[in-house]
Amino acid sequence: MINQWVKYYKWRILNPVIQCAVCKIPSTLLVCNHCYAELELNLQPYCNYCAKPGSSICTDCQGQHPCFSHTYCCYTYSTPLNKILHDLKYKRNKSNIWALGYLLNKALSSVKADTDFIVPMPLSNERIKQRGFNHALELLAYYCAQLKHIPVKTNIVSKIIDTPHQSGLNRQERIYQQPLFQVEKNIMGKNILIVDDVITTGNTANNLARVLREAGARRVELCALMRTL
Ligand SMILES: [Zn+2]
Ligand SMILES: [Zn+2]
Known about the structure:
- With 229 residues, the protein is of the alpha/beta class.
- The chain contains 9 helices and 8 strands.
- It is 35% helix and 17% strand.
- The strands form 3 sheets. The chain has a 4-stranded parallel sheet with strand order 3-8-7-4. Strands 1-2 form a two-stranded antiparallel sheet. Strands 5-6 form a two-stranded antiparallel sheet.
- Strand 1 (18-19) and strand 2 form a beta hairpin.
- The protein is globular.
C-alpha cells in the first residue's frame, strides 16, 4: 500500500504554512477554524442505516433495510465542499485531497474497531479511462485508513457494469437490480467499510453491499464525505 500518511507528513514538513482549502487564506490547518465552523453538518438525529436526517430510521429504510447496516457521514452536500470535490474529480485538482481526507476522517472517528478493511467505491474501467486517474476516493481512503490503522483493499471487488439510470425503477426494483460489482477475493466473515464520496440515493452502495454480503461478508457499513438531503 502506498503510504499516504508518510507522504502527507513530508508534504507538511515542506509546507508548514498552507492555504485553507476553502478560503485560501494562509493557515496551519487544512481547513481553517473559521471555514470549518461554516461547513453544513449532517446533524443527528439521522437514519442509522442511510444517514438521512430526520429520525433514527427513515421511511425508506423502514420499508426495506439496505444491505449495509450503518452509514457514517458528517456533512451535507453543499458549498464549498461540493466544489472542492468536483475540482478534485473532474479537474484533477489534487491539492485539496488532504483537506477532504481530513474532513472524511471525522466521519471515520466512530468506525468500529473490528472493521477488517476499507473498500473504496470502485469505478468501471471505462470511467477510470475517462477521468484519467483512479478515483479520489482511493486516496481519501488511504489517507483515512492511515489515521485509523485500517487496511485499504482495492482488489477485493471490481465494477462490471456502469451504474444505470434508475429513475424509472421503484425502490424494491432498485434494491434487487442486477449486480454491478464482482467480488474477486475471499471475504468470508469479514467486516467491511465501503468509502464513497457522496451518498444520494444510496442505491449503488446498496448494490455493492449486497454483492459483498452474498459473498460472505459478515458486516458491511458505509462511510461518505457528504449526503444529499
Ligand atoms: Zn478558511
Ligand atoms: Zn434510511
